[in-house]
Design a protein that fits this description.
42% helix, three-stranded antiparallel β-sheet, 11% strand, 2 domains, seven-stranded mixed β-sheet, 2-enoyl-CoA Hydratase, Chain A, domain 1, alpha/beta
Length: 499
């Protein structure tokens, strides 16, 4: 403001105006601290980035060239804004949805903060409306939990298609779940909520979300649809509830993806803690459970050793194969077990370590008919896990466009790094999920039926293009369901076989 006012002063005061401008001028931009941050970013990639091999050999990224280009942009920058833009461009060019720079907000420094008010991180702004609900002929069904999971039907030739929208795979997108938890748990809304308090709210919200999903699914099934269509377009992910949700939508006993980990202190501690927990659980377990728990503990100990053994990344940075495996082989996306019967595990103190879906009240195989899942270029993270698992087990037909490619993200809080100059938080994924065909899920999910959407298409154009394919999609899903039913055989949940 001072400089703008000085520019309007009469010529007689020009000299004073120049002095005023120099007195209040901002210091010249210095790229050196930002280049130091770039060097720190490079070190993070070489020590913490789970998808380093994927970036080099699958994505075919020229990492030295990408960092050199970023260096040149920083050196040519005229301001901090320009420098930040160079870092953000680096993340975009890499093409990994979980590599992000979180820039500090003025007046809100990073670091440990006092507990916030409950529900502070719950916002409906992160949940987008259904694309399929815009399709001509869509008829919404008003049910008790339609604010969480909108449902409806679409006619397609002789078929009635049931539609369910999953906007997010975690409760944080639904403030009403948090408010309900506060009331049920007698937690005041106007007092800070620490980690233990937050865990109580999250657990209650997860349970209520699961129960609402079941209720909506049953309300939709009451209309007797010939096929079920699940819309997860613009779904940015969530938590392990995605695994439970998938298992409610198929008669196939699903097997989850293999989980791989980046070597280092973070995962060494994870496996050390897991080993300790399993050995403690074995002390009071039945003989059969004790033998299994101790065997798992031995596996965790072996994986801890791998995690603590570094792999030299220098060859990878040069585009060459390393003499060691960059990633260690963990257990599964669902824990110690790739597949399991939640009902037989619930009640055991170690159930959630063995099979994470046991954390949620769900029933396997509630829906047993043809299943279609709609994805787009904004479907990511846990939403990709949901789609990949169903696709790998031949339990669904995926329709739409390739997903964003975020894959596995951050475990146990992740491995965030604060850059010394900018104070930005750099987040890189510490894990990777590998699919049945051996590919890294970060590649994204390729639909079985591609729809010719363009980035510039509005939601109505997208809905029209989808409707043009709907009849073909429903018929193809029915054929796939029949083939999957034969393949499932004895692996189908009991509820499905008895129907």
């Amino acid at each position: 403001m001072m400089r703008r006012l000085a520019g309007r002063i009469l010529p007689a005061a020009a000299f004073l105006a120049v002095l005023t401008t120099f007195a209040y001028a901002e210091p010249a931009f210095d790229p050196k601290p930002w280049l130091d941050d770039l060097a720190q970013t490079r070190e993070v990639f070489l020590t913490k980035y789970a998808n380093l091999e994927w970036a080099v050999f699958d994505r075919e990224s020229d990492l030295p060239g990408l960092f050199d280009d970023t260096r040149k942009r920083i050196e040519a920058a005229q301001s901090d804004i320009d420098a930040r833009a160079a870092f953000d461009r680096l993340a975009r060019r890499l093409g990994d949805g979980h590599v992000v720079f979180v820039w500090p907000v003025h007046g809100a420094p990073h670091g440990d903060a006092a507990p916030s008010l409950p529900c502070a991180d719950y916002t409906s702004a992160i949940v987008s409306p259904s694309m399929v609900a815009r399709v001509a002929g869509y008829r919404p069904i008003e049910a008790k939990h339609s604010d969480l999971f909108p449902i409806g039907t679409i006619g397609s030739g002789k078929h009635r298609v049931g539609v369910m929208r999953i906007g997010l795979f975690e409760p944080q997108g639904f403030p009403q779940l948090c408010q309900s938890a506060l009331a049920a748990l007698s937690i005041p809304a106007d007092k800070p909520c620490d980690d233990a308090c937050d865990d109580r709210i999250t657990n209650h919200a997860n349970t209520e979300m699961s129960e609402a999903f079941v209720a909506q699914l049953e309300a939709l099934m009451a209309t007797k649809p010939d096929a079920l269509l699940v819309d997860i377009t613009r779904n940015g992910g969530g938590n392990d509830w995605a695994e439970a949700a998938a298992r409610m939508l198929t008669a196939v006993r699903l097997k989850s993806e293999r989980l791989m980990f980046v070597r280092g202190e973070h995962w060494a501690k994870h496996f050390a803690d897991l080993e300790t927990d399993l050995r403690k659980a074995a002390d009071g377990a039945s003989p059969a459970d004790r033998a299994q728990l101790l065997a798992w503990a031995d596996e965790a100990a072996a994986k801890k050793t791998v995690a603590a053994t570094p792999c030299d990344p220098a060859p990878l940075w040069k585009g060459e194969r390393a003499p060691c495996r960059w990633l260690g082989e963990g257990f599964y996306a669902t824990g110690l077990l790739a597949s399991g019967d939640a009902d037989s595990l619930r009640g055991k103190p170690w159930a959630e370590d063995a099979f994470t879906p046991t954390a949620f009240p769900y029933r396997e195989g509630i829906w047993r008919g043809p299943l279609v899942v709609v994805v787009d270029g904004d479907t990511g993270s846990a939403a990709e896990e949901f789609a990949a698992e169903l696709q790998d087990n031949h339990a669904e037909l995926i329709v739409g466009e390739p997903t964003v490619g975020a894959g596995c993200g951050h475990t146990d809080g992740g491995t965030p790094t604060m850059l010394k100059n900018s104070r930005a938080i750099l987040q890189v994924p510490d894990c990777a999920r590998f699919r049945a065909d051996g590919t890294n899920e970060v590649r994204g999910i390729l639909p079985d039926v591609l729809i010719g959407w363009r980035k510039s298409d509005g939601p109505n154009l997208r809905a029209d293009a989808f409707l043009a394919q709907l009849r073909h999609v429903v018929e193809q899903a029915g054929s796939r369901r029949n083939a999957a039913a034969y393949a499932a055989g004895a692996n189908a949940p009991a509820a499905a076989r008895s129907h």
